[in-house]
Amino acid sequence: xxxxxxxxxxxxxxxxxxxxxxxxxxxxxxxxxxxxxxxxxxxxxxxxxxxxxxxxxxxxxxxxxxxxxxxxxxxxxxxxxxxxxxxxxxxxxxxxxxxxxxxxxxxxxxxxxxxxxxxxxxxxxxxxxxxxxxxxxxxxxxxxxxxxxx
Length: 150
Description:
This protein is of the alpha/beta class. Helices cover 51% and strands 13% of the residues. The chain is built from seven helices and five strands. It has a three-stranded parallel beta sheet, sandwiched between helices. The protein has a two-stranded parallel sheet with strand order 1-2. Helix 3 packs across helix 6 (113-127).
């Protein structure tokens, strides 16, 4: 079975060329634009994914990466902004502006079962380090530190 490309999320600025190329590609049955995916539906979508590609130029945190890893999906992500810190060694990291590097990384993950298995295992382990409990504890520690009189 040939993988399909699912471009999820709201239509963003400077995306007109994507939709133009799509309409001219002849691949309308293989490329899907579901728009925003509600959090209660995201798990079902990720569980069917062959891989998760996150070519973002800027992210405040990168929660979709953690969600994909927790779902057992191999991740390819941009080596920009906060993404490498979130992904650690559990994703292939690619220059967000190098289209050829993205194509090569995607082909590599789809072809190499050992690499896919390794990325899934590392991703599941990495996702365990991002819990709401840990977030709350670290936030409380910062608030406690900055709230103390000097």
